[in-house]
Amino acid sequence: MSTDEVQRVGEVVEASTTDFVAQCYELYQTPPLGSLVKTMDLTVELYGIVYNATTTSIEPGRRPIARGRDEASDDEIYRSNPQLLKLLRSEFSALVVGHRQGDILYRYLPPKPARIHSFVYLCSTEEVKEFSQSFDFLNMLINTHLPVSTDELVAACLRQMSQAYEDRHAFLVAAGKELAILLGGEFNQLKSILGRIRQ
Amino acid sequence: MNQENIQRLGIVVSGSLNKGVEVRLDSSASVEDMVVGRYVTIEGQKRRFFGMITDVSLGVIDQKLTLTPPDVSNPFIAEVIAGTATYGTLHILPMLTISGDVASLIEGPQPVKTVPSHFSTVNLASDRDIELVFGKEDKERFWIGNPLDMETKLCLSMEKLVERSSGVFGKSGTGKTFFTRQLLIGTLQKGKAANLIFDMNSEYGWESTSEQGRNVKALKQLFPSRVAVFTLDEESSRRRRVSTDFVVRIGYDEIEPEDMVLLRQTLNLTEPAVEAVYQIYRRFGRNWLQEASELKDPDQIKELLKELGIHESTYQNLQRGLATIRRLPFLLPHSPDNAVSCVLDYLDRGINVVLEFGRYKDVASYVLVANLLTRRIYAQYQKRTEKAMAEDTVKPQPLVITIEEAHKFLNPEVASQTIFGTIAREMRKYNVTLLVIDQRPSGIDEEVMSQIGTKIAFLLDNERDIDSVLAGVSGKGELKSVLAKLASKQQALIFGHAVPMPVAFQPREYGSAESYKHFIPSAETEIEKQAEKDIEELWG
Ligand SMILES: Nc1ncnc2c1ncn2[C@@H]1O[C@H](COP(=O)(O)OP(=O)(O)OP(=O)(O)O)[C@@H](O)[C@H]1O
Ligand SMILES: [Mg+2]
Q1: Is A170 on the interface with B (CB under 8 A)?
Q2: How many distinct structural domains can be found in chain A?
Q3: Ligand 1 centre and the CA of A151: distance in Å?
Q4: In terms of residue numbers, what domain contains A33?
Q5: In B, which residues are within 8 Å of A186 by CB distance?
Q6: Mean pLDDT lowest for which of B226-230, B306-310, B384-388?
Q7: Over 50: is that where the pLDDT of B2 sits?
Q8: What ipTM did this prediction achieve?
């Protein structure tokens, strides 16, 4: 598959069976919360949903110090301290929600985690559409314990995906129905998610 | 099969053969479109089931929803929760299997003996399904109306209908008479039986007025060459410009004690008075009424009473009753002609007979005449059938006798003693069946009701009437709810012998110039021309 039109957003720096962390090449250039990303090794393409992003100091334990007292704007800080861009890094974490082997798309975990230094790409509209043909991934999002609130993540993810569709409303209604079934008795949670995706 | 026409409703989620199955509605199907009485097909794994919606209900996944209802004013939320967190369920009574197994391929729809498996798809029945179950309009089947909320023609096999007695029940003004007229036209059209109609209110032979005040034609006007109108009241018929074929008069000697049993209540007779009739009859034979009327001499009377052991007060009671009868204008000591043989003569020629009562529609006249004629006509049929069986020749053509106010003949008190009770119970042994029409079916003897093969029930609002109509029917509870929801006019439920399963339907429109055309088969062009002429005359 050609990767020319898809946008490269980072490189895997930490990986486990259920998720991977990628570092961005440019500071602050993390993909939006809830977007669908992919990474590949020789035979398998892994799909993940971005659930968290951080920007921290490169050296663990060394926290940046405030530098703007004499500057007119915060942009000025970066201009007068060009080394800062080298001392900080932006990273994002993605939950693995499926993989592709050969031509077949599986919406469950791959046999092996991602390889370190594999490139990570933002999925194209076509890929998002293909992946969201089934809402199986919603179950994984709901049932994994993550540092961000599930409601926020699910809502963000559906908002992102809906942009791939001409009829966003129909897509969101279908997803909402799937959620209503998945959440069964937890009507309050359903209400909270629906409140975050309605237009 | 035409895929576009299939409208999916949902899937089977639970159920039992006795109680029917629960179907969870798809979110795309609105509960508000589901009406009790509609037909559905269920695609089981091995066979297709045909059933009827008998209840519709609402469910929620989480009871909390009913306490803090979601904001359905937001269309998005409303759309999402419809069919998921909140859903509709249908209660469906499977009634037939319509394909799949060998038996139903060869013999048509079969009664259900099992339920469809879990999660079988449920669709709204298509026109074709209905046709598969009830049959198409053809040589034998007559189009009687359309199933509620469907455009399909509902057809009824006239041959099956006349095989057993049938009944049309419903409150006043629901359309019994209008529908019965159509049924009679059906038997005429399909030529499956000869009809004898006791037309209490003079509505079947010739024109009468509908509730909307419009003139409605009847049998003789549509089928002039195949219907004869007999009348008890020549004057009334003449006034209404009915072309009558025969004026019925009854001789005293034609009245038998059995007739008096039927009239006991109407004439206010005591039990002993009826008993006395039998005694007088034994003494004088056929001329009993004449003889009893001529008794004037007190000594003679005393002697007779003593001889027969009849009490004086009983005799007084009886005489008062007999005086009422003698006052009936169509009763003569000796009738110049024989009404029974005349009726038989017409019936034998394949001509249907309508007997109008004109002004004499009091209970006494109606009961007396209908019972008396029927008894003797039936005796003839009995003789002929027995003869045909002995000689192995053709039995007489089936005869259908139509009576309004059937409970007068068939109430528990008299049913065992009257000819109508006998006909109902003997079923079609002698090729004679009844078509009974009644507003109060609970007034009819239970055993007789159970022998009525095909029942057509219009709206009934008395619990006892509903129970008596549905007694012994499987799925009674469900049918009850269908029956209770019928409109107050021109909607009915038909079930029993002549239909493979119960069906709620709307009878065909009857009474407009256009409607008559459809009731006359095109083969009978001559009659059609006549009817067209009539129509033109009537409507200009
Ligand atoms: N099939 C029909 N086509 C047109 N009008 C109808 C039809 N059925 C019923 N009606 C209307 O309803 C009115 C009452 O119908 P009908 O006389 O048959 O009632 P019924 O049940 O015989 O009442 P009752 O018990 O009082 O004799 C008719 O006058 C007519 O206006
Ligand atoms: Mg009537």
Answers
A1: no
A2: 1
A3: 62
A4: 3-197
A5: 62
A6: B306-310
A7: no
A8: 0.80
